[in-house]
Amino acid sequence: MGSSGFNWKLADHPKLPKGKTVGLIVLDGWGEANPDQYNCIHVAETPVMDSFKKGAPERWRLVRAHGTAVGLPTEDDMGNSEVGHNALGAGRIFAQGAKLVDSALETGKLYEGEGFKYIKESFPTNTLHLIGLLSDGGVHSRLDQLLLLVKGASERGAKRIRVHILTDGRDVLDGSSVGFAETLENYLAELREKGVDAQIASGGGRMYVTMDRYENDWGVVKRGWDAQVLGEAPHKFRNAVEAIKTLRQEPNTSDQYLPPFVIVDENGKPVGPIVDGDAVVTFNFRADRMVMIAKALEYADFDKFDRVRFPKIRYAGMLQYDGELKLPSKYLVEPPEIDRTSGEYLTYNGVRTFACSETVKFGHVTFFWNGNRSGYFNPQMEEYVEIPSDSGITFNVQPKMKAVEIAEKARDAILSKKFEQVRVNLPNSDMVGHTGDIEATVVACKAADEAVKIIIDAIEQVGGIYVVTADHGNAEDMVKRNKKGQPLLDKNGNIQILTSHTLQPVPIAIGGPGLAPGVQFRKDVPNGGLANVAATVMNLHGFEAPADYETTLIEVVDN
Ligand SMILES: O=C(O)[C@H](O)COP(=O)(O)O
Ligand SMILES: [Mn+2]
Ligand SMILES: [Mn+2]
Q1: Amino acid 2: pLDDT
Q2: Three-state SS for 426?
Q3: Which of 127, 162, 214, 429 has its CA 20 to 30 Å from the CA of residue 40?
Q4: Coiled-coil intervals in this record (predicted)?
């Protein structure tokens, strides 16, 4: 029994034993696609992953990792780490942030909630600031939702609106930010004609300004703070479209890495610093890259960087980003209630867990895995290890990242026999894939494959079981394609590099000496997705999954 009185006891699996060490490996951004020169996984030497596919067809299959299979609004929505790891850990499909915000805007419920009422109190006298990612990527935010929110707020009394934009180029094509900024500018110009003083006030590239995660580099958040709150940045422009066009011409920059800028008036004065009495909304729905800025905006007690000024604002997130910290305390849309995750169940059923990644993905196998909840369920049963990531670099210059270090930590945890589940995320194919550097991504895929080998060798030694899968596609397709699947060229005849995730399915392989001989993938779950993995893993630990979990992918046949 848990402290709440809920019965966490899982039924014994009728055929599978308990106590085996299960090595659970998530390759970040590793999908299955046609083998061609833009498929970095195909081009790279990946003998271990290849052997799973070729060696044991009944223990290798593909699962869906995008669209409705992971709770996203449509089948055109690519998968991402948040929804992917949520599904892997929770074993059920929850309507995710993107979808919840769509419906709250459509029904108008967003405007009836506590969060909106709270910020609305600032409207008569002060400015409403909106900070977030400007694109239609649908991973962290969506431009159409921003426009609806601006419209809705202005109709409900917001007279002065300032938007602080973060340019994307990571979930969408590099170079597309100019177009998104134009769309927003045009919309704000229409509002100005209706008497609402609405403008873009500052900006910067998402990877260099504001959207860091898991406390990898507070300098990123500080650059945003200086521009958004203090109105200070190295670059000043009269409008955002001009800012983006100009700054993109600087060497080594891109939408993702644009330096911070502020918009100034004809006297050179910033048009939108954040001051006492203002309302602020961070309009991203996705959690990981909003937690740090939320702390800076909300916590009176804060020592991560010198804020210089800490204005008394009314702050709300689009969603609550951390369910454990209850951060932020005010929000516009209720987050998905991802409860009773597999991690929590396993702590009550004697399964000791070790989880590890490097900083940039650490929260994926902990926070996202556990339903956007930071911390341990039970520190006696769990150990989470974070390997510090390199900061201040783009990962194409270091494509091996910390794969070996992660794998060695996992190996040691497996060999220690202190844990029944050892879970890692290997970031390489995703983080390097996002840079759009094909050669470096090939190196990244090879490095991830080598790390898998280190972990499954340890599993061999202890007579354990491995489960190798991925959270969504990325490195298997590095080029934008037309409907026929042919690479698209830009106006200069160059191929259009795809920095984003894909709609592809991902592999899952099971094996190892501890796997009971008759275990194989069922044939009757052809549409299986990431949410089916949790029940599968519970079985491999010797338990039946709870009845409301998505069904297991495996069966045990008599040989
Ligand atoms: O936040 C990011 O880096 C990208 O937008 C999505 O990548 P992830 O979902 O793999 O983290
Ligand atoms: Mn991912
Ligand atoms: Mn990614």
Answers
A1: 56
A2: strand
A3: 214
A4: none
Q: CATH 3.40.720.10 residue ranges in the chain?
A: 23-92+338-554
Q: pLDDT tens digit string along 373-387?
A: 999 999 999 999 999
Q: Which CATH number does the domain 23-92+338-554 belong to among 3.40.720.10, 3.90.470.20, 1.10.10.60, 1.10.150.120? A: 3.40.720.10
Q: Which run of H or of E encompasses 299?
A: none
The interface predicted TM-score (ipTM) is: 0.99
374 is catalytic: no
**Residue 262 to residue 242: CA distance in whole angstroms:** 12
From start to end of 257-330, where are the E strands? 261-263, 279-282, 314-319
For the chain, give every residue range classified as CATH 3.40.1450.10. 98-317
User: Exposed e or buried b for every residue in 149-166, given b needs 16+ CB within 10 A?
Assistant: bbbebbeeebbbbbbbbb
CA 438 from chain centre, in angstroms, equals 22
Q: Does the annotation flag 28 for ligand binding? A: yes
Q: What pLDDT band is residue 490 in, cutting at 50, 70 and 90?
A: confident
Alpha helices in 263-354 (DSSP H): 291-298, 342-348
Class for domain 98-317, per CATH? alpha beta
Closest CA to 129 of 319, 325, 287, 271: 271
162 known member of a binding site? no
Phi-psi region for residue 207, left (φ > 0), alpha (ψ -120 to 50) or beta?
alpha
Rg of the chain (C-alpha set): 24
pTM recorded for the entire structure? 0.97
Which of the 8 DSSP states describes residue 12? B
Evaluate whether 364 touches 471 at the Cβ level (below 8 Å): yes
